[in-house]
Amino acid sequence: MPLIHIPKSWEISEREVTPETIFMNRRRFVTSLIGVGLGASLLPLTGCNSNSESISQSSPGLNHVYPGLTRNPNFAQVNRPITEEDLATKYNNFYEYGGTKSIWQSAQRLPLDNWKVEVSGLVKNPRIYDLDDLEKKFPIEERVYRFRCVEAWAMVVPWVGFPMKLLMADVEPLSNAKFVRFTSFYDPKITKGPGILSQFYPWPYTEGLRIEEMANDLAFFATGIYGKSLPKQNGAPLRQVIPWKYGFKGAKSIVKIEFVEKQPETFWHKISPNEYGFEANVNPDKPHPRWSQATERIVGPGSSFSWETRPTIVYNGYGEYVASLYA
Q1: What is the dihedral of CA 132, 135, 136, 141, to 10 degrees?
Q2: Under 8 Å between Cβ of 206 and 186
Q3: Of 92, 98, 111, 326, which has the fewest CB atoms closer than 10 Å, so is most exposed?
Q4: Mean pLDDT across the chain, nearest whole number?
Q5: Higher pLDDT, 279 or 68
Q6: For the residues of 143-154, what is the DSSP string, one character each?
Q7: What pLDDT does residue 159 have?
Q8: Is the peptide bond before 67 cis (omega within 30 degrees of 0)?
Q9: CA distances for 41 relative to 27, 98, 200, 292, angstroms
């Protein structure tokens, strides 16, 4: 008797996955510096900005192909087309390298040689992993996830990597570890932020999760995308993917993971806590202070004005996995 697959609320068909070329430019921020001087303060004025700059058809940095890659069948369908690869690797935010959606060329400055990831804090087994350690120790798989930016644009991306809970099991957090802080690579001699205001940002980029969120089945460390290694502009060589939260929660180019007792301060929350909350779950009923989150624009070819608009789904459609965390 043939099996009948009944799609879950979060599933989309592969033909609907967002193209890769659009995924890679997540946020454009227009910032305003008030009271420049010894006591300068920074007030970001982020807009729901959609940059429709032309996108080249070549995707740099995708130099390693994962042989024998298996797509996890539990995370294979999301009832939307997968975003074209060149879009997802050319339309993205990476503030260390600029404030527009076309930072992929500047991001090639990111050095990847001898990359290390330090895991420390309240754990039984502190570790320093290199890239070979990560890909040999933890089973690598592909997962198709929705991706939702706080700026109200969206994609569908096939990520390559491993569940965060596997790393947790390896380092064994202590009972008093309640949160996890993630720190991105930053070197002012190499990175190139968005103009003069960049010097006032709280570098390095940091993000955080509750330990229960990191242990959730959905929480993922990505080492690749579209069956290949992550391009630098997508957060190579290791980034967070938290599909039920807005994209800024996914730290890129991670160099440090710390298990801590108290909620850590994070980059955008420190800059503007009323706009970028620590939790940052996708929620159509909770508008950003300067725009609605009730709908989202699906990144696609052509001008952003032609992109399809769809209703936003609470938790980005992953409620059956994560709603209990916030009951």
Answers
A1: -160
A2: no
A3: 111
A4: 85
A5: 279
A6: EEEEEE-TTSEE
A7: 98
A8: no
A9: 21, 20, 8, 27
The answer to whether 244 and 281 are in contact (CB under 8 A) is yes
**pLDDT on residue 234:** 97
The pTM of the full predicted model, rounded to 2 decimals, is 0.83
Task: Give residue 245's pLDDT band: very low, low, confident or very high (50, 70, 90).
Answer: very high
Q: Which residue has the higher pLDDT, 296 or 2?
A: 296
Beta bridge partners of 116: 130
Burial, 34: exposed, middle or buried (Cβ in 10 Å; 0-12, 13-18, 19+)? exposed
* CA–CA gap between residue 57 and residue 111 (Å, rounded): 24
> Which one, of 322, 143, 154, lies nearest residue 241 by Cα?
143
Distance of CA 40 to CAs 34, 47, 165, 266, Å? 7, 22, 41, 20
Residue written as token pair 């503030």 = 95
Say what the pLDDT of residue 62 is: 52
Assess whether pLDDT exceeds 50 at residue 43. Answer: no
**How is 264-283 classified by DSSP, letter by letter?**
PP-HHHHH-TTTS-SS-B--
Point out which residues pair with 246 in neighbouring strands: none
* DSSP code at position 123: B
Indicate the Cα dihedral angle 84, 90, 93, 95, nearest 10°. 160
Q: Is 211 helix (H, G, I), strand (E, B) or coil?
A: helix
Peptide bond preceding 311 in cis form (omega within 30 of 0):
no
Model confidence at 155, in pLDDT bands (50, 70, 90)? very high
- CA–CA dist 85, 68 (Å, integer): 20
Distance from C-alpha of 152 to C-alpha of 308, rounded to nearest angstrom? 12
Q: Show Cβ contacts of residue 311 under 8 Å, excluding neighbours closer than 6 positions.
A: 284, 294, 295, 296
> Is the pLDDT at 128 greater than 90, yes or no?
yes
Please report, as a single letter, which amino acid is at residue 26.
Answer: R
Residue ranges in the chain assigned as alpha helix (H):
20-23, 85-88, 131-137, 164-171, 211-214, 267-271, 319-322
Q: In this prediction, what percent of the chain has a pLDDT beyond 90?
A: 71
**Are the C-beta atoms of residues 72 and 145 closer than 8 Å to each other?**
no
